[in-house]
Amino acid sequence: MFGSTWTPGAAPALLTDLRTGLALTRTELGLATARFYRAIGEPAPSTRIAIEAKHDLVDVIAILSCLRYGLTSIPVDPLLGPRAVAHIMDQTAPVVAILADTRTKVAQACVDMKFDPGSTDADENLMFSGSSLAMLLYTSGTTGKPKGVMFSRQQISFIVETLAGVLEYCPLTKVHSRLPLTFDYGIFQIFLAAIFDQELQLAHRLTPMESQATLVREPDESVVLPIVPRMGSALIAAAKRRREFATSVALVTSTGERLASSIADELQIVYPRARIQPMYGLTECMRVSVGPPFRGTRPDSRAVGRALPGTQVRVCDDGGRELPRGEVGEIRIRGPHVSSGYWSEEGPPDGACLGHGGGRELRSGDLGFQMLDGELCVIGRRQDGVIKHRGHRVSLHEVDAVAGELSNFGDAASIANSDRIHVFYTGPISPDKAEEHLLSALGPLYAPIIAHHLPELPVNARGKLDRAMLEHLADDSKACDNNA
């Protein structure tokens, strides 16, 4: 995309696409953001810009351009189904949508437009100051539809600067990121690079084997590897197949779900120089805590460190009363980075954000406790329908909502079992067709979906859906598949 016009200079790269080999310095990235802004018509501040986030240079340029010029970016996951995308477009009504063919035209415009070398287009300050709305980051929720989490520029600045300090990021460090740019920790790798002069290596489109080869190639480098645990498992397998371990990796940060001790042990084998730091967070506040770095003996895998500076964590009972240390309850978070709420005319869903002491308090929906020394331990989520599925946060409520809207499904309910989403229904449609229709509507983010026809859904003594029975039926079907 930029190969024919950018002249490599002596300055280090700030952004590299490992699939294409294209790299931009800070000055070049400043020029590119200006070109993007002009290509979309120089919209007024606070204009909403939807961007299909395919994890390439266009995404990064578009998101940083929105930050620089006071626009509101709306990254859209390409794995979302048409129903979810339509909901996001209808709810936000973006003035500009960088989707499909529009991406190609904008990318070309970023290259072709000419600038006066003495102009301010190459301004290296990529961060727009102020409290205006910077980003709407959509995540699955309990309403059956994606919800847009609102972040201001001040909130982004706070969490980026806080994380960089806690992680002891240094300039010229390389960050090898396979995380999608619609995932909160994935998109924040862009901001960390833009503010703290780290080279962001976009590796999302690489296979685990290609990614591992890149990490091995330069053994004297200092590389940060942000992962989710399932991604870590894939890289471990690739390292074992290559029989090459990467001494370039100095830090592995893990988030998204609990980092099992077995995976942590393997990471220390394939990345022998690396310290490992587990994290805990939610989209609505990005990060809550960062565990202390460790090598060697793995501490309690439930432990995720103390609250970030400027952040307060309370563990509460169902009535909102704070519990003594050691007792299990719901984790609640306060701090400057807690989202302003959700983009909706109806306001945030009930119970998502509550006032406490004159500030915003986020109800995480996660269960945990605080140790005597203040370190936070996370046990798991409440049964609210939001789950981690193959590293992504998805909503079973959305599965149920889609099944309820499709013809011939009858009564339907879904559960998560292992790495599969099981949908039970009573209508006349065949299981194969049911799976096909659901995946078409929901998108590959929810795959695999296993459909089961039942004469009627099981209920308990109170007349409510018997989810324990559905779990049992799902286990039976898995056993039958394994014995087939």
Overall 3D shape: globular
Please count the helical segments: 12
**CATH class membership of the largest domain:** Alpha Beta
CATH homologous superfamily caption of the largest domain: ANL, N-terminal domain
Low-confidence stretches: 1-10, 347-358, 479-484
Radius of gyration: 23 Å
Order of strands in the sheet with the most strands? Answer: 2-1-9-8-10-11-12-13-14
Summed over residues and divided by their number, the pLDDT gives a mean of 82
What is the CATH topology of the largest domain? Rossmann fold
How many domain regions?
Answer: 2
| Percent of sequence in beta strands | 25-35%
Q: How many strands?
A: 24
Instruction: Report the span from N to C terminus.
Output: 49 Å
Structural class comes to alpha/beta
Give a quick account of the main beta sheet: strands, pairing sense, barrel closure: 9 strands, mixed
CATH architecture of the largest domain: 3-Layer(aba) Sandwich
InterPro entries: AMP-bd_C_sf, AMP-binding_CS, AMP-dep_synth/lig_dom, ANL_N_sf, ATP-dep_AMP-bd_enzyme
Protein name: Surfactin synthase subunit 1
Pfam families: AMP-binding
Organism: Microbacterium azadirachtae
Description:
This protein is of the alpha/beta class and 484 residues long. The chain has helices at 26-39, 57-68, 82-92, 101-112, 153-167, 184-196, 208-217, 229-242, 261-270, 396-405, 431-442, 467-483, and strands at residues 13-17, 22-25, 48-52, 72-76, 96-98, 133-139, 147-152, 174-177, 199-202, 223-227, 249-254, 275-280, 289-290, 306-307, 312-316, 329-334, 353-356, 359-370, 376-381, 386-389, 392-395, 412-417, 420-425, 449-453. The strands form 6 sheets. The chain has a 9-stranded mixed sheet with strand order 2-1-9-8-10-11-12-13-14, sandwiched between helices. Strands 15, 16, 17, 18 and 19 form a 5-stranded antiparallel sheet that branches. It has a 3-stranded parallel sheet with strand order 4-3-5, sandwiched between helices. Helix 1 (26-39) packs across helix 2, helix 5 (153-167) crosses helix 6 and helix 8 (229-242) crosses helix 9 (261-270). It is globular. 42% of the residues are buried. The model is unreliable at 1-10, 347-358 and 479-484 (pLDDT under 50). It comes from Microbacterium azadirachtae. Residues 45-343 form the AMP-dependent synthetase/ligase domain. This is Surfactin synthase subunit 1.
